[in-house]
User: Fold these one by one.
Assistant:
Number 1:
Amino acid sequence: MTAVIILTLIGVLLGLAIALTVRYFGAPVDPLAEQVAELMPGANCGACGFAGCNDYVQAMVSGKAKPGLCPSQSADALQKVCVLLGVASEGRAEKVAVVCCSGTDQYAIRRAFYNGVNDCHSAMLVAGGSKGCVYGCLGLGSCARACPFGAIEMRADHIAVVHPEICVGCGKCVTVCPRRIIKLVPKSAPVHVFCSSPEKAPVKRKVCSAACIGCRKCVKAAGENQMFINGFLASVNYENPPSADIVAVCPPKVLRTEAQPAASAASAAPAAPEAPAATTAP
Amino acid sequence: MTKKHLHFYGGVHPQESKTASGAAIVSAPLLATYVVPLQQHIGVPAKPVVAKGDKVLRGQLIGEPGGFISAAIHAPTSGTVKEIATCLGPAGNQLPAVILESDGDDLAAEPMPALDWPNASPDELKKRIAEAGIVGMGGAAFPSVVKLSPPPNKTIDTLILNGVECEPCLTADHRLMLEKPEQVITGARITARVLGVKRVIIAIEENKPDAVALLQEKAAGTEVEVRSLRVRYPQGAEKQLIYALTGRKVPSGGLPMDVGCVVQNVGTASAICEAVCEGKPLYERVTTVTGSPLVAPGNWRFRVGTPYAEAIKLAGGVKVDPVKIISGGPMMGMAVYSLDIPIMKNCSGILLLAADEVRQYESSPCIRCGRCNDTCPMGMMPGILSVQIEKERFELAEQWHVLDCIECGCCAYGCPAGRPLVQLMRRAKGEVMAARKAKAAKKA
């Protein structure tokens, strides 16, 4: 019995000590900053340019930064933040990432078997990677690992696909990709060119059957200045994109609405070199 | 007389496989086309001084140095410049190149006048070395004139000639020492004169006793000393070589000149001798073409611009399909995916490996066995470094001296978990150098 009383007393005293410490020695808390912080996504992705969500909140509350730099925040939360800070709400261009390549194992040939670190940067150190096209997706997952939101799927047929419904456009994948083929585009864009090789069509086709052949059918079918062509590679003008039904004119099906690999009318890739023993790859 | 030498820390002893060491050097026959890269050296590519349609003679200048760290390129034979284009390099990148169509006559350009090297000034000799386009022929291809021009605050007192050839399978340097010993020794003495050093040591591994004996005989009476070192990979790495012969340790991040030494390959010395005494620029080199899939491995003197496919043809072609083709040796060479790559000034070997000689492995996590620490000749900790590099902690890797890694491969050679350690080190070195560059650019 005595033990219970003594322990209860100790508990009460310690509780009092904690309360008094927090009251008199506690760090000052800005109630406004706390309220704003609750409306932040808390992913600490760094897209805003600050070192995490709390850093950005401090900058906003002290007036050093404007709200709206966070791409992962919902529009609703952004509106609430603007109200709290007494700042006029600003429009925010919603962006998503797109991997501009269609070279899955079905369409892209390999020039050698790669056995090493399963990372795109490391593969680049070994004769520029094992895929025949030097502009294409290496398919080893550096972007998928870099994505803080898990929006990139590294498919088993060695191509990275961004899921636009999860992607918030933070841009981490864009800087990580060693081939620089991931682009940040407006979320509303209806079509994309899923190829990044500027080579001549016969050269491109030798290494990948899902390549933009530079035939310019899309340029002709689209309205003025809706599609660009740079040498042998077409690209979408994201400020004035064509409508989604333009995808019907593209022969290799590289101009598409979705990252789903091309269901090309052309034949699949020529036979890859014979594997000597166990396979590589993740 | 063999003096005792020091044993460097670590290293491994792979199977030597010097099957081509009995094959005398054969001069490769003339080809119809040579694809001569304008970048066969570390540094800035050479600038072409010829254009499409120009007629050139053997040894004529076709590329001038593009900067301070650069080298001249000379035509390997007489003919017409078909075009200035690009070609595939052994690292998988595209190199600027001069495509030369040979006219079959192999006429030589007027050679540079022979220099009386014992009386020529170091500057005259250096000028000749630069004009001849001499680069390090041990594999690194660093422009020799830059290496032989240390800054005035670095006093050099020892020249070491690297005849160690510690890489398994390669025998080019061995054959060169057996067949042209006087050239190697004269080249060493010329280099010593350029540097102003009195102490010259030619280092050879014990597994080449015939070369040791021959060079000792030929060097008798000169200032050149010939030393025989124990067989251990990487005895031929310059920092390990300096330690074994002089006991001096090159500081972390430093160069041999920081401890008063310059290390040069015997092939480079031989090329310097030819340039100074015969006025011949560098346009050919001895390369070992070897491997069990080949019908007749051997050593050839190839002109730069010879495609690997031709080299393999000369070796009798393959009797078994090779699974891996390496430019260089098995420890530090680069695997290539095309035989269109031309032989360059730094290509010491072309190695073919059969299916039963190559391991395709799944690497597993580090088991902390420590074998890599025991074998790393630079005294690094490859295992723990690799774990941090996998987690992309490159600043930590920088603190742990990843830039000191010489990429010798001893760590990966012995790793029981089959981890691609050298690749991880190279990744980290690339990231650290890029971060340093970005920091320097920000400051500027």
Number 2:
Amino acid sequence: MSKASRQAARHGSFLLGAAITAGIVLVAVLSLVYTPRDPLSMDLDARLLAPSDAHPMGTDQFGRDLLSRVMRGAAASLVVGAVAVAIGMGAGVLLGMLGGYFGGALDEALMRIMDAVYGFPAVLSALLVTAAFGPGIVISMVAVGVASVPIFARLTRGNFLTLREREFVLAARALGARDWTIIRRHILPNTLGPLIVQATISFPVAILAEAALSYLGLGTQPPNPSWGLMLKDAQSFLGRSPWYALFPGCAIAVAVLGFNLLGDGLRDLLDPRAS
Amino acid sequence: MRRYVLRRLGAFVATLGVVSVLVFVVIRVLPGDPALIIMGTEASPEAAAALRRAMGLDRPIPVQYLEWVAGALRGDLGRSIQYDVPVGNLILSRLRVTLPLTLLAALFMTTLALPLGVYAATHQRRLGDYVAMVASQLGIAVPSFWAGLLLILVFAVQLGWTRAGGFDGWQAGIWPGLRSLILPGIALGLIQAAILTRTTRSAVLDVLRADHVRTARAKGLSERVVAWKHVLRNALITIVTILGLQLGQLLAGSIVLENVFYLPGLGRLALGAISARDLPVVQGVVLFVAAVIVTLNFAVDLLYGLLDPRIRYE
């Protein structure tokens, strides 16, 4: 057993986070091949039923099984989170890399753009983009992803600024290595640890943002199941069917908690200075 | 300090410029004709052309941008298509709800988080610290709009202590107005309070380990004097920085909470404008909120330089 594995095995919150995250991922994958009932199938005779053996989480206003919808909602949340983080990380790493490595006016211009993008939290950029293109899951993924670009760009830039002056980089340059080779083979691999930690921390933020956008009607569109959208529908029935608002909300909170614990744990293990 | 302020001011103006370009580009330049977005694809070509002329869309893009920015600097953000009034006036009238809501959430956040964070740090690895950290971890995981729904469920639906939402306006009195904002303020401030608790704890712990604190203790000062006079004052540099950034997050978050509690603020204005295809309003609200967030970040930078001389000499 390696030293890192032994440290991970002793880190309580990392283990708890990993277990919750594994559970959520398992449910999401399972929901693609199996759900207790069809999450889209309506049954108008079974509207707003309380939790029972037949429907462990009850049913919604169209008689759809909430457990099946919450399960399928996990898949939607994970996909949106993954794509949004990929967008944020891809664009952020590229911009941070260019600014941090080449410096000068390019770096200054890129950082001003990042400062400006930082002024657009996901909800705000979603409002803007939805006004131009209409609502949808793609819009919410782009909006959430764009909102996280500055974090990845600043992190990458900071690491590049430090690493570009280190001896092994100066040696590679003295040996005639090209800029792209130095970036790809010498600097980028050394920034991966903090980037992986940041991606894990950004993931729950993306899940929360997607849920908020779907709640506002700017993200996933009906009849597709999404935790935020379910909460929006549940609001109209708070007095009559309070459980309707409980289960999707709990699902968001548990997923976010799991990823947060995992991210914190990974930070402690991979990037002890940051923690 | 002067050089530092001038440098930050230059960066701030440039950032505001980029914000205005982003807002303009998304609405006017990306694929999609604003005239058709507003009127719908069923509009006749003549009507669309007339609207394009009226909105100045037939002029070159750079000219349109400069005219729009010049107008925005004068406070002229165009005219609402839905309400037929200046967008600036609409924003100002809706701020009467959004601003108090944001401030109330900020008040809740600091009142809860600062004492809790200091307590957790000064009682590290004891029961109180663990309880505070578990509570903050849970607080960060709860979406603000779900917290809002739960508050409505408990205090409006189950206990009947308050209304489920709505706002009668300040003319009905300060207390009825504030009462409508208390639950949304708590829901909005909760997640940020959880973040601030952790930041405060971490900042106070950092200072507790510093040499000057050890010296203060060695001099025989009481723990209370050490904590409040020597620790908190130094930890405030980090706390104030995070607090400033969180104000921007609260303002953006109010867009969601206003929709949970049916409050007639900027968020409801913007969402209503999207449904009504009222692009000047969407553009105006987004520009306003983004500019406020960038300004808050600038203020934080200045404050940071003021509080910590090392920053301004970097």
